[in-house]
């Protein structure tokens, strides 16, 4: 390994967070949540019953089954956070955006992160919600989308603070309406006052440029030859 500048001891590559620095400079989301690390994967059919067991639906209609069905139709991606084979969180990315027409018209083509929850409650505040939001952003970026949004209840300022810290902003208010059927056959209807927040996503081009720059810097520091076409 080459030494840098006047330093007599070689600086180990990993002590310089080149990726983090470049991603920051190039506008990439820099999100290194501390705490509990989860593996986040799209829901599979065999996961639905496990999810229902660990995070029961308030309605007799399983919302995990409904969200998995939406994913099967291509309307959404239902992300599940796993920790040691136990589901600890979930979030649905609705590719056709918010169900509310006023939001959809004002934010055309903007997918919505919906139904974000970390469970059990004792696991909250450990970075899992941040990891789910980041995973959803990565999915949307991979699809070439330039913005993503989410609705947050006005009665949930703690969640709103988290989203604003992650770069989400907005003022569009609307009513989020939904219904639940209980085991006695009674429907319960809800209308939560919400605000829609959105965030620009990094352009794919920046990501490619950053990756290429990182490869060149790594090569310069380690003496390794970067992969890719050679120009003679
Ligand atoms: C909101 C939620 C998904 C965030 O996930 P999380 O894993 O707790 O969040 P992170 O650990 O990544 O970030 C912590 C931040 O989340 C916010 N937060 C919101 N609700 C919280 C809760 N019940 N417990 C802990 N943090 C919460 C806090 O602002 C906290 O920031 P702080 O450290 O400055 O206090 C999770 O707390 C949750 O499931 N809450 C109940 C359901 C809900 O409100 N969903 C949001 C619908 S829009």
From TrEMBL:
Alphabetized SUPFAM superfamilies for the sequence: Acyl-CoA N-acyltransferases (Nat) (SSF55729)
Domain N-acetyltransferase stretches: 38-202
Entry keywords, A to Z: Acyltransferase, Transferase
Presence of the UniProt keyword Transferase in the record: yes
Secretion signal, residue range per the UniProt entry: none
Gene Ontology molecular-function annotations: acyltransferase activity, transferring groups other than amino-acyl groups
Highest taxon above the source species: Bacteria
The keyword Repeat belongs to this UniProt entry's keyword annotation: no
Descriptive protein name: GCN5-related N-acetyltransferase
């Amino acid at each position: 390994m080459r030494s840098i500048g006047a330093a007599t001891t070689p600086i180990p590559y990993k002590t310089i967070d080149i990726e983090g620095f470049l991603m920051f400079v190039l506008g990439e989301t820099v999100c290194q949540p501390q705490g509990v690390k989860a593996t986040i994967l799209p829901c599979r059919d065999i996961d639905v019953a496990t999810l229902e067991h660990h995070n029961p639906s308030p309605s007799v209609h399983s919302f995990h089954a409904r969200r998995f069905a939406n994913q099967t139709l291509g309307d959404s991606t239902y992300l599940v956070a796993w920790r040691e084979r136990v589901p600890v969180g979930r979030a649905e990315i609705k590719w056709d955006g918010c169900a509310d027409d006023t939001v959809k018209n004002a934010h055309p083509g903007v997918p919505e992160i919906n139904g974000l929850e970390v469970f059990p409650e004792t696991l909250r505040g450990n970075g899992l919600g941040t990891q789910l939001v980041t995973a959803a952003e990565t999915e949307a970026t991979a699809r070439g989308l330039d913005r993503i949004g989410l609705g947050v209840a006005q009665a949930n300022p703690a969640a709103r603070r988290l989203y604003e810290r992650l770069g989400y902003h907005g003022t569009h208010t609307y009513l989020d309406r939904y219904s639940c059927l209980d085991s006695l056959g009674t429907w319960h209807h809800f209308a939560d006052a919400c605000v829609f927040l959105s965030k620009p996503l990094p352009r794919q081009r920046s990501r490619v440029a950053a990756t290429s720059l990182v490869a060149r810097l790594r090569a310069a520091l380690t003496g390794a030859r970067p992969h890719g076409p050679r120009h003679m």
